[in-house]
Every structure is written in C-alpha cells, then in structure tokens.
Amino acid sequence: EKTGKVLGEFCRCYKEQFGVALFNSVRYEIEGTGGPQAQLLHRKVPLEDHVIYSGNIFQYIEENKKWRNRFCVVPHNYGLVLYENKLAYERELPPRVLVNSAGYKILTSVEQYLELVNNSLPGVTPKSGHSPILKCPTDFPLILWHPYARHYYFCVMTGKEQDKWRAVFQDCVRHCNNGISEDSKVEAPAFTDAIRMYRQSKEQYGTWDMLCGNETQGMAQQVLQPAGAAGDGWGCSWRRGGTLTPHLCPQVSDAVYRMVYELAKAQYDAAVARCEQERPQLESTIRTDMDQIITSKEHLASKIRAFVLPKAEVCVRNHVQPYISSILEALMTPTSQGFAEVREVFFKEVTDMNMNVVNEGGLEKLVEYMEKLSHLAFHPVKMQSCYEKMDQLKLEGLQQRFDVSSTSVFKQRAQIHMRQQMDDAVYTFETLLHQELGKLQGKDDLCKSIQRILERVLKKFDYDSSTVRKKFFREALLQITIPFLLKKLAPTCKGELAKFQELIFEDFASFILVENTYEEVVLQSVMKDIMQAVKEAAVQRKHNLYRDSMVMHNSDPNLHLLGEGLAIDWSEEYSGQPEAERRRRAKQVVSVIQDDEGALPYGAEALLQPGSPEARQPEEAQPGLPPSPGDAVKEIREALAQESLG
Length: 646
Fold this sequence. Notes:
Blueprint: H1 2-31, E1 51-61, E2 66-75, E3 80-83, H2 86-90, E4 97-99, E5 105-107, H3 110-119, E6 141-145, E7 152-155, H4 159-177, H5 187-201, H6 215-223, H7 249-288, H8 290-360, H9 362-373, H10 384-387, H11 397-401, H12 408-436, H13 442-493, H14 514-539, H15 559-562, H16 570-574, H17 579-586, H18 631-645
Antiparallel strand pairs: 1-2, 1-7, 2-3, 3-4, 5-6, 6-7
Helix pairs in contact: 1-5, 1-7, 6-7, 7-18, 8-9, 8-12, 8-13, 8-14, 12-13, 13-14
C-alpha cells in the first residue's frame, strides 16, 4: 500500500516533468548552443564486445555456508558475471551469478562489514555467544554491501590480488551508478527532476547518494528509504523490534527490494509509455507555439522574481557567498590532481610504448602496444592512481553547514570525467597516429612522429581538461548551494507559489511549472557569484585552469572529420597473426588476475566441498537485481503486485 502511494506520486511528478524536459529539449535543438568546442575526439563505442577483466575468485555461498572457487568475468557493460569455472565460461554455459553493482560499497575487512550491518539494523543486537555472520578463510576479503539488496562475499589469496579486484569492483560500481543515460535529452532529465521534486515535497533537500543505477533502481531505493528520511519511507520499519537476526535481515531486505523493484518497474514503464504516446502531440504544440510559450514563461518568471529575488539575494549574501571560495578550493585541489595524474599516466604509457617500439622492433610491436593503449581509460588498475586523488575530497564543516549527506556523488562524477578525458586523449592520439603511418619510413620516423603527436594531444588535453573541470566545479557548487537555498527560503516562499499558477495559460500548463520556474529564479540569485569565483580561479591560473577567453588557435580543422570514420582495428590492419589469435588477444582489456584454479590455505579446504549436492545448485540469476526469492516470497510478491497495480 505504501509502495503504491509513493510510486503513484512519483509517476505524477514524472508526467509533469516530462513536458518541461521535452520543451527544453526542443528549444535547445532550435536555438543551439555556444561554449568552447572540444579539441579532443570522442569515441562513439569505446568497449564493444570487449571484456574488462576476468579471473578466479573465491565466493561465499550463503545457502550452504561454503566457499567456492568461481571464474569472474567483467564484460563491457560492467556487470559482475560469475561462472562455475573457466571451462564453463569458455563453453558459454549459463553463469551462476549476475550482479548489477549499482549502489554497492566495496569493503576489504569483515570488521567494516559488521559495522555497516549493525548500523543498518536498529534494535537488533546479536545474542551473546552468537556465531559471526561470516568467517573468511583468508586475510583478504572483498565484500559487496548494499543497504537493501543482497550482499556478496569474496576473498583472494594475496594483498596484491585484493587491490586489483577492489579496483575492478569499484570501477563496476562507478559505471553502474551512472546508469541513467545522458544521451536521453528528455527521459533522463524528466526522471532526475521528478525524483528531486518528489523528495523536496517531503522536505528532503540536497544530494542523495542512492540516486544510482537505472531509473527503476532509483525509484525502488526511494521507496525503501528509512522512515523519516524522505517523509514516508518505510525501509527500516520491518527491521525494528529485534525479531530478525543479523543473519536473516539482509536476506529479507533483499526479498523486499526485489518485490519493490518489480512494482516500480511496472509503474515506471507504464508512465513512460503514456508520456511517449502523448509526445507527438506535445512536440507539435511546442514547435507551433514556441514563441508564445517562451513569452508566457518569461512573464511568470518576472512575477516570481519580483517576489523571491530580494529574499534570495539576502540569503545568498549572508549564508552562501562567504563560503563559495572555500567550497571551490576543496573541490579544485583533488579534482585537478586527478586530472594531472590522468595526463601523467597517458604521457608515461605513450612514452614507454615509443621506447619499446624502437628497441623491440617496428610496426608489429606498435600494433601490440596500440591494442593495449586503446583501452587504457578502461583499465581499472592503471586508472586507480587517478581515481584515488578524489579520496582527498573533504568539505568538513561545509558539509554540515550545507547539509551535504555525502561527497561520493562529486567524487564519482569527477572520476567519470577523468575516464572520459583519458579515452578522448587516447582516441585522438591513435587517430592521428593512424593517419601518419602510411607516410613514415623506418623506426626513427616512427619515433619522432609518436613524440610529435603526443605533444599535440597533450595541448588539446590541457585545454579540454580545463573546460571540463570548470563546468564540473560550477555544477558541483550549484548542487551544494541550491538545495540549501531552497530549504532556507521554503518557510517564507514555498507556500506563496500557488498564487502564481493563474498566470500560466492552460494550453501551456504541460510545459511551464511554477515550481521549476521558482527554482530557476533561485539559481539565478547565486549563479553570478559562482561564475565569478570560477572565473577568478582561472585568471589566477589556479590548478592549471584556462581563462574563458582563451581559445586554441592551432586547432586541427579536419581532425573531427577523422573521428567520424570507422573505429581503428590495429590487429586487423597491421598484424600478421592468425585471426583466432588476434581475437583472443584483443578481447580482454586487462590480463587475467589469477589464471589457475587456486586453493585456500591449509585448514580451510573443509569449507570447500565441490561434490556436495548444494554445490551443484545454481545460487542465483540476477540480470540487474538480487537473486530470486523462495516460493513463499513469490506468492507475497504476486499478491502485492496485483493489489498495487489494481
């Protein structure tokens, strides 16, 4: 009943925001955009048909309380896929486990895990002498913890393996958290705005680190918020009272999450289908009446501005402006260090390749190294030194002042930008080198050409890096300050907004919302100060930022035409190896961590009994969700679904 209520309210928000997002998209398409053009090329399909990582890892199976050796594969979509063994993978047998890691945290000690579990179980106290939830047979565990979904337990034999797998798992979480496609110019902004508006209607402002994964996951996680966190969440209500042990609570939570997910998916898909059905008529109205809609919106904005802006400016002057430079400095230092590390890693990889090509022999070696270099941005271990720089991000007192629940949103966003900039640099380098190869004669020419192209690409990288970082800083400052201002202004402004509804023509009510226009006015009250702070940082050349007036005059006019061509397949064009060998080598981005079957330390073998009946049962199948619940839970799920959807 509560799930149906939350989802119903959210879907109404989505329908409202869909019209606004559609109007903004069409207007953007007609009016175009300014801003600096990127100097680096952008690869369209970075990892098609490639595997990021694979190797053997021990997994704890909760059903029979045994550890099993599994062959783990991370494909191009960053899912975690576990097979019985490597042979099962090579024979293309069905996997044992499929994990969508959005929303998970990667823990490297049982103590960290137990602390999170105990904090998430209010009123549940383990009994004296009760056996621990998990016994790890090695000193190198890797645990995937989620506040609602199933937990996964792994371990490896050495600290080096643990570091590698941790980097891989973190890359999976980072990618899956970013599950809402930015290519969608209507559905994605409509969804994120609907989530924000729904939360604000429950007096929940600020960033939310569980808005991660795809749209349905975001909705399910909103429903399962602890009571009081977003007004009417009920996520912890069934955990209270000590009726569940720490062993059972994650399993029950997982089953509840699955049921809520399925209800959310059904309602969201239905809402999207209704909006898409109305889209042609809405778009026709927008294109026909664009000027009138803009005029009507500007009239509404002027009235709201006259009412809100004086109060907003006082609030900005007293509570925001004094702290903007401190927030910006806290953001700039780790972010710029991370981008500098991206530049350094790229420079080192190309320079090492150049030396090895000269020393080891010409074009054939170049092909081998270029195959590896082309996927550098997606190598979780080599990129880890870049990502780790963001761990320094701490807003300290500012975080409490502006009610920022977590900095993880900003960390992951900066890390995604780093990966994209690395791939853009690599793709530009290989495109320019590919163009030059036909003109070269001998190793010396090849060496000089690689060095010359590297210098060109680094100049372009510095320019694009500055542009991307400045945009990131502006967006992060807005994400921190706007929710704070809205919360501050709510007691005096929000109740008065209803009177502005009469200023909107009924024909345009699908494209103009009072609440959205009010937010735009609040944004304008602080935008000038934010732009000025970032501009001053660039003028002072802080952290290698370029001034806005700085434009690259030596840009390559034909470079972007080269980027429109087909993807370069180095092995197919230049390698003399057989096709099967080329495919085997090119298929995986990173080498296998542990190619043998491995064994646990002496004394832990008793935990592994491959011949037992339990070991032959598949643990779960999870295309984007935790494992399927038992029959009893399925019956509950079906009854709830019929009641809610009915």
